[in-house]
Amino acid sequence: MIKLAPSILSADFSNLLAEVEKVEKAGCDLLHIDVMDGHFVPNITLGPPIVKSLKGKTKMPFDVHLMIEKPDNYIGDFVEAGADIISVHSEACTHLHRTVQHIKKHGVKAAIALNPATPLSVLDYVLEDLDMILIMTVNPGFGGQSFIPSTIDKIKALKNMIERRNLNIDIQVDGGIKPDNIHLVTEAGANVIVAGSAIFNSEDIMTTVELMRKNAE
Ligand SMILES: O=C(CO)[C@@H](O)[C@H](O)COP(=O)(O)O
């Protein structure tokens, strides 16, 4: 079962609630919230108050992707604001295992995100503790970038790694996913698909979501 997670980075922030309502009505499964600090990535987006302002206004779970340094300092604030899943970047964590336990202690789902150049081996000793792994299919920081094709082999290798250990972990992909390439990532093993510009910049969100779902399966 494929889950679609529209990234609000490409939404019209002056009309954020209406944008969220549109993707929920179109049948999307999760709301992907990109948090950027201007240090880990060269862009600044939003913090817990914006997340909190949306809580209770949609039934979609909040999938919060922290592209920030020192994520441990902010996990509690995002949980309090309404996060249901929190992803931290392996590249931003000095003590990755500790950070994963920190997320889980807050009672939300824990995920690790990997930049395109980061090997899967960083997951070796934390895999069993994860609910989801986020394979970045662009370098993080901006919406509207082009999909990096070498990430397909990485998704396949991750799928094998999870199956070999008999685990049940979602594989999320994020960056440059459109109706015409979504099948490449789902065939490789991804089941949670983030899409920002493809959904929010489309003329008809409902039709685009339907097309993405059809092409994914
Ligand atoms: O995390 C990020 C970018 O760092 C993403 O969530 C983007 O927002 C996805 O946007 P598109 O590539 O789908 O336009």
Automatic annotation (TrEMBL):
SUPFAM superfamilies: Ribulose-phoshate binding barrel. The active site is at D34, D174. Its cofactor is Co(2+); Mn(2+); a divalent metal cation; Fe(2+). GO terms for cellular component: cytoplasm. Coiled coil: none annotated. Binds 1 divalent metal cation per subunit. InterPro entries: Aldolase_TIM, Ribul_P_3_epim, Ribul_P_3_epim-like, RibuloseP-bd_barrel. GO terms for molecular function: D-ribulose-phosphate 3-epimerase activity; metal ion binding. Substrate binds at S7, H65, G141, F142, G143, G144, D174, G175, G176, G196, S197. It is an enzyme of class 5 (isomerase). PROSITE patterns: RIBUL_P_3_EPIMER_1 (PS01085), RIBUL_P_3_EPIMER_2 (PS01086). A divalent metal cation binds at H32, D34, H65, D174. Keywords: Carbohydrate metabolism, Cobalt, Isomerase, Manganese, Metal-binding, Zinc. It catalyses: D-ribulose 5-phosphate = D-xylulose 5-phosphate. One of its GO terms (biological process) is pentose catabolic process. PANTHER family: RIBULOSE-5-PHOSPHATE-3-EPIMERASE (PTHR11749). Belongs to the ribulose-phosphate 3-epimerase family. This is Ribulose-phosphate 3-epimerase.
